[in-house]
Records
---
Amino acid sequence: MENVTTLGEFIIERQQDHPGSSGEFSRLLSAIRLASKIVSQQVNKAGLLSNIVGAVGSENIQGEEQQKLDVYANDQFIKALTKRKVVCGIASEENDDFIPINSEGTYIIAMDPLDGSSNIDVNVSIGTIFSIYRRVSPVGSSVTEADFLQKGTEQLAAGYVIYGSSTMLVYTTGNGVNGFTYDPGIGVFILSHPNMTTPKAGKIYSINEGNFCKSSKGIQNYIKYAQSVDPDTNRPYSGRYIGSLVADFHRNLIKGGVYLYPSTSSAPNGKLRLLYECNPMAFIVEQAGGTATTGRKRIMEIDPAELHQRVPLVIGSAEMVDKVVEFIKEEDLEVTEG
Ligand code: AHG
Ligand code: MN
Ligand code: MN
């Protein structure tokens, strides 16, 4: 174990990268680490527990069925983050409103405690996504909505946990991206993917093609482009779509590729949420050398209007994202000219 760096050691080593010098930020990361371990353990035995698997019978604010594990993960993260006292407020996919925590705390968290929850019952990878900001309201007061409605460019850190064939935690504080794999035998995350970078281009495109007929002409034309044969540009690309953003993103980050959740006729702003899905992934991808856009605007420059706002997302390898944007712009041009 001599040459191994654990997440705990890494956090201490990189203390200087963290905002504030008091170790508060490290305490925050260690809360996330603890909750991830607990959720990971529960996810691994989800198939065994009939009281965990399945719908809880209620719906969240977006009218989606909440799964029991969603609620469990939400509780675990909130509990761990509350205990550390450095967090002043949490916004979660599973809570209609933000939750004020310790008014003396400095940090704001936005999170998707369980992403890809439709995959829980069928043993397919799921994840947790988080985004960390410094509050804008004065310390000592109660948090306000404005604390949460900050642009993605203001993020201090962002990360995700993937509960896959192994559990991994990947995060950035704006100084590169590092990935840690969980060793359940000794209960620690180990630095397995230092300084992660994403290829400029790959050969994977990830989109729910069931929405083809509901998609814009630009997106339809891109899908046809991805499918056409051109060995010089590695086409046809491989279509890969898991239906868990975390898992699709993680694979594309490592192999190179592009993930799209564009607007459709039934979901004009797409499906994914700006604060706790798009912004954190955008921060990570940019730190790894990739890009993230709605097709018309850089994700991290969007001024959020509401907590559960949705935006279209095109994210991944820079050259592949650029190509999608070309198709979207071409369509915009046709619409204005025609
Ligand atoms: P969540 O489980 O947190 O609600 O997120 C599900 C999201 C995302 O993970 C995934 O990429 C997308 O929904 C899949 O949507 P479709 O089933 O419409 O393709
Ligand atoms: Mn999600
Ligand atoms: Mn979720």
---
Amino acid sequence: MSLISPWRTDFPALDALERQGQVYLDSAATAQKPQALIDALTHYYANGAANVHRAQHLPGAMATQAFEDTRHKVGEWLNLGTCGHVIFTHGATSAFNLLAYGLEPLFQTGDEIVISALEHHANLLPWQQLAQRRGLKLVVLPLTADGTVDLDAASSLINARTRLLAISQLSNVLGTWQPVSTLVEMAKAHHALTVVDGAQGVVHGRHDMQALGCDFYVFSSHKLYGPDGVGVLFGRHEALARLRPWQFGGEMVLQAGYEHATFRPAPLGFEAGTPPVSGVIGLGATLDYLNDVNQSTATEHEARLHELLCTGLRLREGIRLVGVPQVALASFVVEGVHNADLAHLLTEQGIAVRAGHHCAIPLIDRLGLSGAIRVSLGLYNDSADLERFFDALDQALELLR
Ligand code: PMP
């Protein structure tokens, strides 16, 4: 069955990579960019760059307008309504660090932070560090065999001692959706704060913050076909009122003296210094582009490609899928073959996939693996990309076994 992506030609890098003999199957790490984004960046830089929120001149006003328009577009993308604010950071990782430092005064020795066993280091290490600074306990929710959080275990591990739950929406290693709404409800029943890592989830489907009910939701623009260097932190009003600024500097200040300063409320109070202006404007253009992509056609295309990927892997002897991937990616190991050797042979054949621990070492350890190869898909991938991948895989395995 041949599957052609109607969006492939909107992403010029796909052609360029093809001319270099490359098949790009690493979109979970970072996605290629649509022409609409490239045009927006060229337009911004060619017509006058300026800082935002400071200058009274025309270029400053234009940049501020485009920057704030993006804030509005992100709000619509996440269906915030009036329930909270969008804060721009320099990436998802910055947003988690902002939260872990900014919420620190709310914690007391013995309080518990609940995460899951599959968290990316970005949603693990900032909490681990906070736990060490404050004498907190980091509680790790176990997984079921198919790679989702075990809700039975969660119902006892999330309890009156829980002060915060931080949970991934879609695993970057297992490709499994997590029961975030249920977990958020469990945490809220105990008045705990809730943080959802949407770095992978935001790319696949639309997620409604009003319905999800979490206090904070985090993602990176670069995985959503936007520029790198931009992160999004959604915060609900009540939760933002409890968050202290983490970084201090220009534009986040209401009044400053040598001994004392007061700070702006969200969102600007959490955006110290010059923000990633071009990146945010580029994210706005990317969201315009994505709003024109028919969501159900895209979801169906991705689902059919994913099915081809998983079926092809399952058909091959000695290959073991890690967990039961549901969308967008699949990680696997091959019996008797070292990941690094296989990755090397795939790379030599122009196949851009990821091998290693995928920034989730505790999960890889818990699964008893030394690493895994991850194939991940974007809007622009075709079945021809997977055919080339499988040809290369078969050749590599023939050499290695
Ligand atoms: N969480 C998940 C699930 C991710 O996949 C990633 C990126 N690999 C991150 C967080 C961190 O994103 P960034 O590196 O863009 O800050």
